[in-house]
Design a protein that fits this description.
Blueprint (H helix, E strand, L loop, with lengths): L9 H5 L8 E5 L3 H13 L3 E5 L2 H10 L4 E4 L8 H9 L6 E5 L4 H9 L4 E4 L4 H22 L10
Parallel strand pairs: 1-2, 1-3, 3-4, 4-5
Helix pairs in contact: 3-4
Length: about 160
């Protein structure tokens, strides 16, 4: 089991109270890990919703928008790889695989199926937060490059 420290990072302390950095969907069948991660990520100013099987994950992503999904591979009902296959064909948020399956072949399969990052358990929760923020920065940069934010007309 990953030991999660109780003190958030200095970056979390600098943000205003009540401000959420991003909505996170946490998909893992380990309810105790989900509870600990939820507490840690909320201290880092993320809004977290957790579900515990692949079918719930697909339903939740169909009912609400998330900025990032943290997805385990070994899930009941629908595997994390199957969830990844299903959502990578749609306009899905970035996916960070967080799983005990850390072998090279598992990481390669996850990344080839469309995951944005892959972190093996056990993990350092501060590294998880750093990876989440890096993914969100990259996702924001991709979105802003293709977006037209303002139209300015000059002249007659």
């Amino acid at each position: 089991m990953t030991n999660i420290p109780q003190n958030p990072s200095p970056a979390a302390a600098a943000e205003p109270a009540g401000a959420h950095e991003a909505r996170v969907l946490l998909v893992d069948d380990d309810r105790e890990l989900c509870q600990m991660l939820t507490e840690y990520l909320e201290a880092e100013h993320f809004e977290v919703r957790s579900v515990h099987d692949g079918a719930q994950a697909l339903a939740e992503m169909g009912s609400r928008e998330y900025e990032i999904v943290i997805l385990d591979v070994m899930l009941p009902l629908v595997s994390g790889f199957d969830v990844l296959r299903e959502i990578s064909t749609s306009n899905a948020p970035p996916i960070l695989m967080l799983t005990a399956r850390g072998e090279d072949v598992d990481r390669i399969v996850g990344l080839e199926l469309g995951a944005d990052d892959y972190l093996a358990k056990p993990f350092n929760p501060r590294e998880l937060v750093a990876r989440i923020r890096a993914i969100l920065r990259r996702a924001g940069n991709r979105a802003s490059r293709g977006a037209v934010t303002d139209i300015v007309e000059v002249g007659p």
